[in-house]
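Q: How would the structure tokens look for this protein?
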Amino acid sequence: MGKRLAENCAETCDLLVDAVLKLQVVKQKVFWLLKTRQRQQALHYVEHLCEAEDLRDLTLIMEDYCMSLMKEIRILKGRRGFSDEAKKARAGFHLIATRCKALSCMQDIDRALIIRLGCDPCCRHPVEPHVLRKLLPRPPSEERREQLLEEIWRERGVPTPDVGSASPEIIESCKICCNVAPTRSATRSPSPSRPAFEECQL
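A: Here is the predicted structure in token form.
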């Protein structure tokens, strides 16, 4: 049982990290459009970001999965303490929970970005940058970032501009807006019908 939990943890972590990377590059694209004064296009991409149902579904799946997984781990512990396999499963769970917290923190950063674009009247205070640095995963490589950008833009049916040389500007623009570089960040679209992860007491 412990081995199965450990494998499930690893598989789910891979899924979540992949989603985090995709969200990173979408946000970088928005900042690049703002930097090049393409405000209407930036608004268009923010709308797509907020309407991405697959991203909302992912966060709900992760919330339910983490809660049920934690119950299984507690059962597995029993009276004799954690076995080696249970310890692996427990470590995997904490990794997932960390990723979930990172996604949840970025909800406030998303609101700050939308406010800057002028298309949403409601905004909370963004999370402190030093908190984000502790939670967020490592940034993708430049090659992986551009590959993900192309995939996302292809899905949206839009031309793919060359943004490889714009990375320094993207980072600088993001620092001005949110006080955190986009290569250190990950986003998720707000889901008003469900609570944020930090409210789930993981």
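Residues 2-192 form one domain.

The chain is about 70% helix and 0% strand.

Upvote if useful.
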